[in-house]
Design brief:
This protein has 321 residues and is α/β, with parallel strands linked by helices. The protein contains seven helices and 16 strands. Helix content is 26%, strand content 26%.
Length: 321
C-alpha cells in the first residue's frame, strides 16, 4: 500500500521517473503528480497507461505520502522536503543538491546505506557514472583519479534540449539566427565550459566511494549532444595489475557492460540503456599504474530514474519482509 508523490513530473528527469515507475506497478499503490509551478499544473499525462493530471501542490497533499521523489531544483525543493511528515522518505534527484541535503546513494555502490525516513539523494549523473567506474577498482587501490565529463543538453532542462535541436536545424539550413538564450552561444556541434561545477558532484562522489581516491578531480564540459554522458577517466593504481585485470574488475560490476566495439563507442550508444558502457582501457605509458578509461552512460535512465527507483526498492524491501 505504498503511496508515492512525484514532484515536477513533467521535466525531463521527472518524466523518466514517471515512466519507469509506470513499468514497476508492483512497487506502489498510488502515485500523486504534484507541482508548485503554475505552468506545469494542469498538465495531462499518464502513469502506467492510465491518464493522470499534474495538480498544484496544496497544504496537506504530502501528509499521507510514504515516499516522495523531488525532480526539480534543490532551492525550490528544500521547503517541500521540510514539509514532509517524519515517516515519509524523500528521494532527491536535484542535480544541484548539496551534501547536507541527504545521504548520497548509488545502486551497486552503497545501496545498503539507504534507510527509510531519512532524506536520500540520487546524485548528479556525472557522480553516478564515475562511481560505477571507480567502485569496481577499489581492490586495485586507486590513489589518484581525474576525469573530464562530457555533459549532454538533457542534463539541464527541456529548454536546453530544444535549443540544441533548434541550433542544429539552423546550422543545417545555414541560418545563423538560432536561439542562444540558454547557453549564450552555439553549443550544437560544439563543446564549451559547463555551468555545472565539480563542486556539485565531487562531494557526493567521495561520499559514496569507500574509500575514495586520495586525489580526486573532475572537470565538466557542456556539449551539443542530446543525451548521455561521456567520461574520460585517468586513474593511477597503487600497483600496475595490467589492462586485462582492470577490464575484468570493471566487467564484474553489475552496472557495467564492456562495449563490443570499444574503439567505436560513442555517447549515443548509451541512449535509453540502463547500464554504463565501458570502452577502451589503455595504459598510460608516462605514468606507472596509470590508465585511461572511456565510458558512457544515459543520464536520465541509469544516472537518474533507474538509480532513484532502485533506492525506492531498497527502502521498501524491509517493509515488505
Amino acid at each position: 500500500m505504498t503511496r508515492l508523490a512525484l514532484l515536477h513530473p513533467s521535466n525531463l528527469l521527472g518524466s523518466e521517473v514517471r515512466e519507469t515507475l509506470g513499468r514497476r506497478r508492483e512497487l506502489w499503490h498510488e502515485i500523486r503528480l504534484l507541482t508548485d509551478d503554475e505552468e506545469e499544473a494542469g498538465t495531462l499525462t499518464d502513469v502506467a497507461g492510465a491518464a493522470a493530471m499534474v495538480t498544484a501542490l496544496e497544504a496537506g497533499d504530502l501528509d499521507r505520502v510514504d515516499v516522495a521523489f523531488f525532480c526539480g531544483g534543490i532551492e525550490k525543493s528544500r521547503p517541500l522536503i521540510a514539509a514532509l511528515p517524519a515517516s515519509a522518505t524523500p528521494i532527491i534527484l536535484s542535480p544541484d543538491a548539496a551534501p547536507g541535503d541527504g545521504e548520497a546513494v548509488v545502486a551497486g555502490v552503497n545501496l545498503e546505506s539507504a534507510r527509510a525516513g531519512a532524506p536520500l539523494v540520487s546524485p548528479h549523473p556525472g557522480a553516478v557514472l564515475l562511481a560505477h567506474l571507480l567502485h569496481p577498482l577499489r581492490d586495485l587501490r586507486p590513489a589518484r583519479a581525474s576525469a573530464t565529463l562530457l555533459q549532454p543538453a538533457s542534463a539541464l532542462t527541456r529548454a536546453a534540449l530544444d535549443e540544441v535541436f533548434e541550433q542544429t536545424r539552423g546550422i543545417l539550413r545555414f541560418d545563423p539566427k538560432a536561439s542562444r538564450q540558454v547557453f549564450g552561444t552555439q553549443v550544437a556541434f560544439n563543446a564549451i565550459p559547463s555551468p555545472t561545477s565539480a563542486e556539485q558532484l565531487v562531494p557526493h562522489l567521495r561520499a559514496v566511494l569507500d574509500p575514495p581516491p586520495e586525489e580526486l578531480a573532475v572537470q565538466v564540459l557542456q556539449t551539443g549532444v542530446f543525451h548521455s554522458f561521456g567520461a574520460s577517466l585517468h586513474v593511477v593504481l597503487a600497483e600496475d595489475p595490467g589492462p586485462e585485470e582492470v577490464r575484468r574488475a570493471l566487467a564484474k560490476h553489475p552496472f557495467n557492460d564492456l562495449a563490443v566495439d570499444p574503439e567505436l563507442l560513442g555517447m549515443i550508444d548509451a541512449a535509453a540503456r540502463d547500464e554504463v558502457l565501458v570502452g577502451p582501457v589503455e595504459p598510460d605509458p608516462g605514468c606507472g599504474g596509470g590508465y585511461w578509461i572511456w565510458a558512457v552512460m544515459d543520464n536520465l535512465t541509469c544516472g537518474g530514474a533507474g538509480n532513484a527507483v532502485r533506492i525506492l526498492e531498497a527502502i521498501l524491501q524491509p517493509l515488505v519482509h
